[in-house]
Fold these 4 entries.
Entry 1:
Amino acid sequence: MNKKELFENIKRKRSFLCVGLDTDIEKIPPHLLKEEDPVFTFNKAIIDATSDYCIAYKPNLAFYECGGSKGWIALEKTIEYIKTHYPDQFIIADAKRGDIGNTSAMYARTFFVEMEVDSLTVAPYMGEDSVTPFLDYDGKWVILLALTSNKGSHDFQLTKDCEEERLFEKVLRLSQKWGTDENMMYVAGATQGGMFEDIRNIVPDHFLLVPGIGAQGGSLEEVCRYGLNDTCGLIVNSSRAIIYAGNAEDFALKAGREALSVRKEMERQLFLKGII
């Protein structure tokens, strides 16, 4: 999916919501545990209930890898289900990969060739040669970690060099030599608030993947105030607040209602920006 197609989908659905599929078998409704594949059954119901209100899904690989081979099977079935039944959805593999060049090349082959996802989160801290192998695939996206939503992000990402440039700013500036706004996005956590203005000063045209609204307490309004651009430029993720909105047999219905509520606020923000 290219940038134009992604933007057209945002306008058509009046949403820039990404539903994070952080599916923990210990948190899904108990009645699903009798299913042959509880994780996939849960994901399928969540996807069916939320697909009208979002433009992307983001399975977090840790929640599948912890299940061994069964977890990988559930992940592959989930991705295939989205591609088959909801082909307009942008699929993000939240894997945070990044290693020396030949290893990154294997990770890229895994996700872009074997699993055929649209995008992959990548850690930039081993430098250019650990990132560029992911950029060799037409129509695929690298989503580079820049300023994350967790408390510990301040430990390193906000440290300054002798010229007073913060580390996340260096990541944003240097990485533009590796990719473009047609194949590279950045992770920018919703909990970082007004620093979205600083981010936009460096990367005005790139899409940002924004975790941290909902359970982590980030403000969607603040993110939009500083982060929206003329092509929206935001994919805002919500995981726990949506997928665990309910824990009974009507869990999918409640997830759909929560996704709709977020989509309504996104629609208002897009209208205020003049995008729709």
Entry 2:
Amino acid sequence: MLSKEILPNETRIFYKSLFKIVLPITLQNLISAAVNSADVIMLSKVGQTSIAAVSLAGQVQFVLLLFFVGLSSGLIMLTAQYWGK
């Protein structure tokens, strides 16, 4: 890690703010991956049809996630442009 003398105060504040945003996102993705792995492990005892059903549901969830990320990214850009004026 860089020492405090190298980074200006504004940069340290930015990194602290960034870490506050990135940490919950990282934890959410980690928990989601763990749940999906647990589903596959538990359903491996039941059969391939159950695993295929969970996989299809995961694909639908992923498509919805992509839709919402795209929508929020577009809204963020429009808001930033409006705010910049």
Entry 3:
Amino acid sequence: MYRKFAIAGLSILVLVGCSSLPRQHAVPKQLTTQAVVPLDINEVRYLVDAPDDMRRMSRDAAALWPKELAWQVAQGKSGKALAPSNMLAISGGGDNGAYTAGLLNGWSAAGTRPEFSLVTGVSTGALIAPYAFLGSKHDAQLKALYTETPREQLIEIRNVFAVLTEDSVIDTAPLFNLISTQIDRAFLDKIAIEYEKGRTLLISTTNLDTRQKVIWNMTKIAASQDPRALSLFHRIMLASAAIPGAFPPVMIDVEVKGQMFSEMHVDGGTTGQVFVYPPSLNLGALAKENGGERKRSLFVIMNERMDPEWAETERRVLTIAGRSIATLIHHQGMSDLFRVFLTTQRDKVAFNLSYIPSDFDHPDAGTFNNDFMRALYARGYKEATQGGNFWQHFPPGYTIE
């Protein structure tokens, strides 16, 4: 999937010289950590590796536990200890997201899918995450998105000469329209209700100006009644899926001391194919210090095959470069997966993993091809419903002596 877009991006480099589109000024380097999104709710995002933001993220996580306890009591359950927590992390992968759609639908059909206290998404995972967060009642929408939506309702391939004046080879206006239609204010209100119960939805993007991962607290945004909140929610979803060069970046307005700037955000997969929370947030220690100790389980769905996936490579510049970038992305995903695994081991979180099986070999006939996506959806559904445990408990290649 990413290989096709990598080649498209490389084509731009071949065709384009110094052309660029106008933009509002980026936040000056010395002010980047002070930039805020103008909204009636402050601090709706976390700049990864910014110490102040990571401390705030820790405080926000701890502040959820009293909400959860209060909700338990309201439901007639014990308020002495937190119930076990299940978390879900969905990776990038473009049209391979059909695997997650099938797996979630099959998991619901099997009757064993839990409610997740935390859901995170990157790229195509960011498009899935809001539906997964709200639960099985949105399975039909998720299935339709990845099996019934024609390509022209997702993307529009621009004229080849557009690369001389545009910032991408593909127009994602159809995808933005689809997101805007399906994710309305009523949808956000449902997410906001879950936020009051102590649940969280996170999506990551990449700020190209700072080359930094940004984690957005989508539940906080949903809880905002600011009229700009809905548009921001849509733009973050689109930005997380904006593969650089192939899809246009998303410009997000920010404010520093009353002065307006813009940030250029692209695919969250640029800085990480999958995430749960930054390793700097020591969940185990935080829970021990703030009364948040309980049993925790993480479920990671990788919308990629984890095997090397052999192919004979033609001796052509774009083919070699595209294959190399796809290889880089593959191994970045493996590294991200191991980082998540090691973090869960430190924090005593049970690790569960599913990914596209290596024997899935349905031909991919092009970007967002419905036949391919239906086949992959069916395979994910089968994995979840064929009986037995369809989760692995270690990353591929990890062994215990």
Entry 4:
Amino acid sequence: MRPLSSLRWKIALTTTLVCCLVAAVLGILVHNVAAQQIVGEVRKDANQELDHALGHYEYGTAHGDVNVALDPPGLPPPLKALVARGRTGSMVGLHDGAPVMWAAAPADRQALAVWIPYEHTRTRLRDIDAAILASSALAAGLVALAGLFLANRISRRLTTTAAVARRISAGDLDARVGFPADDATLRPRRYRDEVRDVAQALDSMAASLQGRLEAEKRFTADVAHELRTPLTGSLAAAALLPEGRPKEMINDRLKALHLLTEDLLEISRLDSGVERADLAQVELGRAVQRAVAATRLAAEVHVVRDAVVLTDRRRLDRILANLLTNAHKHGLPPVDITVEGPVLTIHDHGGGYPPDLIDQGPQRFRTGDPGRGRGHGLGLTIVAGQAAVLEIALTFDNAPDGGARTTLRLPVGKLPEGS
């Protein structure tokens, strides 16, 4: 069930409230007009009977079966005071407990009054009020349903657009909203559809972003492939140089360039989405100890609680090697690695990760903080890519006591049958 604070409920409630307000105003107006007309008719009848009674009173004759009397005991005091001032008037009051319409006029310093039944008039007014309330309730209900239908349609389309935007943010650049555009040649566009405009703008943005990223991926892959062949020849040629400092310098630079090329090729494969993990159940503590030993980099491994995780040993070794290399290159010793169940933490004691890396994640060719040394930003980019292949939850932050901290939460489970 959607919360009442959602857009569709806000639109429906607003529409209903406006309808109720309009119905209330119109109901009051209709009630007043109908009451004035009906009461006016009764008042007119009472005044006519009073005129006849005055005529008969002057000639000293009776006035048929009309209720008429001089200073009757039930005459309302306001009307009696009005007659005492020499004026004629009428008003609704009671006679013997029953509602009547009174009409009175001066007659020999007394009040000559007539009264006619008013209960039927009250019943008519109550019937009119009931009809107004029923009509208002029916109109409010229909408007509420119509508003809820329209709001639900708008909310559904906005929810679809938001879901597609989240998928694009998560990396699914093929996601599209796909609302059909109006064809001006088939039917003219009579109104502006803001929701469709937003959806089409999102689709256009996603297509543009996808095109740029695909171009960047192709460029990275092409550069890496083009560099690989001449580098291989250059490494072979450098091996033929005579021993000495010049050969060491050339080999050192060629090896660095060769590693950069291999990193770019690995990133291009990760970006293409063709990488598939060879999953197996692995004891995380032992796997981490073996991977650290293979790197020959100083690090303290603390196995607080071991766990069996579902992962690819080769890719996990690659992730750990890059994180340890990054910690030694940009941080300060000691480097601590803690295994606590399926959660793995790598913590150095240097200046910590730059804020941009923590907020946005690693980006190629951007190290973010000169204080963490020079680099291409490819090592952590590969870590993030391999972690995505292994479905590892990866976070970068700085420890409270200082230093960069990387946390990996590995998936725990059983291998599917037949694997």
